[in-house]
Design goal:
The chain is of the alpha/beta class and about 270 residues long. The protein is built from 7 helices and 15 strands. The longest helix is centred in the middle third of the chain and has 13 residues. The structure holds flavin-adenine dinucleotide and FE2/S2 (inorganic) cluster. FE2/S2 (inorganic) cluster binds next to loops.
């Protein structure tokens, strides 16, 4: 009999961490596959997560492919399914199907300077590359991370980012001045510009709100980055995740199959439907 491609694997929530609380709450879930259904994935790929009786949603796999005993997902509460998963407890079971989408060409970046630029929940899709680059530190040149939230309470992976300072150049920011904040005050694109990252032998990877990505790319171009040196992801709404329903198209591309990872050289020629 043909395999049902919509059938999820069952995963048990092994841990839940509150990253951000309040209106834009983000929780990080680590899930295990008790039936031995763990799958391999590549940096940049996603999975369709189901909360039974509520629905499905596409979420970036936020753990490194080098981690073999769990998959990590960091999820912002915005609507029906995200609210349902935020109410779940350790030991509860969710559905996971995937991995879906293309990948960041990390192997092609060996020997290069990596510049990561994230905002809000946009650190999740690039976190697997950061973790992989740190684990394989000698394969890469400088690692620089820019990440910002609206306030210090909106910074996700805070402890992990602090730990990164030993091996990477970490620039944290908050949108507005805040008492006790020692990092940059202002928007992420401005932080990138003020630090003046050099484009030589570099790849810049940016994820976050579309408005942030727009100005980050503009500023990277201003600093001399070529279109081929800039990578991002696009998160068009998705339904099937496997190129069947047509829900996610941008021009001729189904983003769930051809994306979500694009270089700016590829993306700038697609219609602005993202
Ligand atoms: C490739 C990809 C990777 C993603 N990775 C992550 C991730 O790592 N973490 C995370 O928190 N979210 C991620 N998302 C977004 C996530 O899929 C949506 O937030 C989720 O589907 C919302 O489900 P919901 O039922 O809670 O919201 P709904 O009840 O469906 O919607 C609530 C509100 O959010 C809007 N919305 C829903 N989905 C999207 C979307 N994809 N883009 C823009 N607006 C949307 C709706 O229009 C509505 O206003 C990703 C999306 C894609 C396509
Ligand atoms: S989500 Fe169905 S074609 Fe992409």
């Amino acid at each position: 009999m043909t395999e049902n491609v919509y059938l999820p694997k069952l995963a048990r929530i092994a841990s839940i961490k509150d990253e951000v609380v309040g209106a834009r709450a983000i929780k990080t879930f680590q899930v295990e596959f008790p039936d031995g259904d763990m799958f391999e994935h590549e940096c940049g790929q996603c999975a369709m997560i189901s909360v039974f009786g509520k629905g499905e949603m596409m979420i970036s796999i936020a753990s490194s492919p080098l981690v073999k005993d769990y998959k990590q997902f960091s999820i912002m509460r915005v609507g029906k399914v995200t609210t349902a998963i935020h109410a779940m407890k350790v030991g509860d079971v969710i559905g996971v199907r995937g991995p879906y989408g293309n990948k960041f060409p990390v192997n092609d970046w060996k020997g290069k300077n990596l510049v990561f630029i994230g905002g809000g929940c946009g650190l999740a899709p690039i976190w697997p590359i950061i973790q992989t680059a740190v684990a394989q530190r000698s394969d890469f040149a400088n690692i620089t991370v820019f990440y910002g939230g609206r306030s210090s309470r909106d910074i996700m992976y805070r402890a992990e980012l602090e730990k990164l300072r030993g091996v990477a150049d970490v620039h944290l920011s908050v949108d507005q001045a805040e008492e006790g904040w020692e990092g940059y005050c202002g928007f992420v694109p401005a932080n990138v510009m003020s630090t003046g990252v050099a484009p030589d032998n570099a790849i810049a990877i940016t994820c976050g709100p579309p408005i942030m990505i727009k100005y980050v790319i503009q500023n990277l171009k201003g600093l001399g980055f070529a279109d081929e040196q800039i990578y991002t992801t696009i998160e068009n709404k998705m339904k099937c995740g496997i190129g069947k329903c047509g829900r996610c198209n941008v021009g001729k591309d189904y983003v769930c199959v051809s994306g979500p990872v694009y270089s700016w050289a590829q993306l700038k020629d697609l219609p602005q439907e993202y």
